[in-house]
Amino acid sequence: MAASAIRRALYARLSGDATLTGMLAAPGAIYHRRAGRGVATPFVVFDKQTGLPSWTLGARDLNDELWMVKAVDRAPSATRAEEIAAQIDTVLRDAPLMIAPYTVVWCRRDSDIDFLEEDQAEAVQHCGGLYRLLTERVL
Amino acid sequence: VARVTLTSRFPEIARALPGGAARETHAAAERVADSMRRRVPVRTGAHRDSIRVQRGGLGDDAVARVVMLDTWPFLEFGTVDTAARPFVYPATEAEQARLVGGVRRLFD
């Protein structure tokens, strides 16, 4: 399965939620892999962490992938990042992602991401989760 | 008259299970640690060199933990400026099926 199909579907799902984009520094502050140096926070960044394909009779039918989706916020308190993470979970839980010719059979948060980064004595909050996406080819 | 004799292997399995489970989990932890060492980004090598397996704990010999520098989330999930370079989850996800298979064989 091309990761780009899931990437596009996740981006569309996240950027299509007005509540989520309204919580960010800018409506388009959703980035794949990295936001870039000096980008205003809060923003959302997402990336594929790992994936395991299953093969059946030579065709890849089932894919089990973990995607990181997290809020990043320069702030002394984690409150805003936590609120964004909660909205991410609302948007992604059992999301009907369109990844033709595959169908999503499972989209749930598998584990949390919650840590503090100190960037030049400034607190940066990271809150979100690893989302397990099981996709199956429609035969 | 046909006779069928059924015998229970539960006592034998129960005797073998604790040691077998410990062997499987310890071996799995060593494989995960090796996989992490191969995958972790290396600049100074501090993260790679910190990865080690602790055996036992929580009152259970069949427990094994892979420990490393507590700054691993910055590599695994990225920072405000850098992209994620995952090495923990890819290593553990790849091992799960093998560990489950190994424990299942203890019941054969």
Helical segment count of chain A: 3
Structural class of chain B: mainly alpha
Query: Order of strands in the sheet with the most strands of chain B?
Result: 1-2
Cα separation of the termini of chain B = 30 Å
Q: Provide the gyration radius of chain A in Å.
A: 16 Å
- Molecular shape of chain A: elongated
N-to-C order of helices and strands of chain A? HHEEEHEE
User: How does the overall form of chain B come out from the CA principal axes?
Assistant: elongated
What is the average of the pLDDT values of chain B?
Answer: 91
The amount of helix of chain B comes to 40-55%
Low-confidence blocks of residues of chain B: none
* Number of E-type strands of chain A: 5
Biggest beta-sheet profile of chain A:
5 strands, mixed
What kind of assembly state do the chains in view correspond to? heterodimer
Short description:
The complex is a heterodimer of chains A (139) and B (108). By secondary structure, chain A is of the alpha+beta class. Chain A contains 3 helices and 5 strands.
